[in-house]
Amino acid sequence: MTNVSRNRPLSPHLTVWRPTITYVMSIVHRITGVALYAGTLLVAAWLIAAASGPESFERVNALFGSLIGRLVLLGYTWALMHHMLGGLRHLVWDTGRGLGKYESRKFGWATIAGSVTLTILIWIAGFALRS
């Protein structure tokens, strides 16, 4: 008996696939989900500092108000918006709509554009209310 497995084709590796918007959005959706766990720890730290007293609250506010802190908060805001829109996209897909090649591509690009737009609008509103 010959070795049958020797003649079988190998499974395609990731390097064979051309990146499409739908699979990139799937990966980014998972990454933003993980980032939201870390960001939620930051929200919890802020709430704990607020409950601990003015000194702790000022230290955390100073950290979040620094350039690095603001960049982290900007990234957290974008991850939250992107993950939310990705979840809405999946919710629409669960109804059986938007599953076509072109519709799913449009949904992917709309998720990117929407998350960036919402992040910018949230930060503009935040700075406007701050003044």
Quickly list its features.
membrane; 4 helices; 3 helical TM bundles of succinate and fumarate reductases; 131 residues; 78% helix
The global form is: elongated
Give the name of the CATH architecture.
Up-down Bundle
CATH superfamily: Fumarate reductase/succinate dehydrogenase, transmembrane subunit
Order of helices and strands: HHHH
- By DSSP, the count of extended strands is 0
Biggest β-sheet description? none
By DSSP (H or I, 4+ residues per run), the number of helices equals 4
Cα-based radius of gyration, to the nearest Å: 21 Å
Give the distance, in angstroms, between the N- and C-terminal Cα atoms.
Answer: 81 Å
The helix content, as a percent range, equals over 70%
Strand content: under 5%
Q: CATH class, anyone?
A: Mainly Alpha
**Uncertain spans, ≥5 residues at pLDDT below 50?**
none
Which structural class matches the secondary elements?
Answer: mainly alpha
Membrane topology: Multi-pass membrane protein
Subcellular location: Membrane
Protein name: Succinate dehydrogenase cytochrome b556 subunit
GO molecular function, one term: metal ion binding
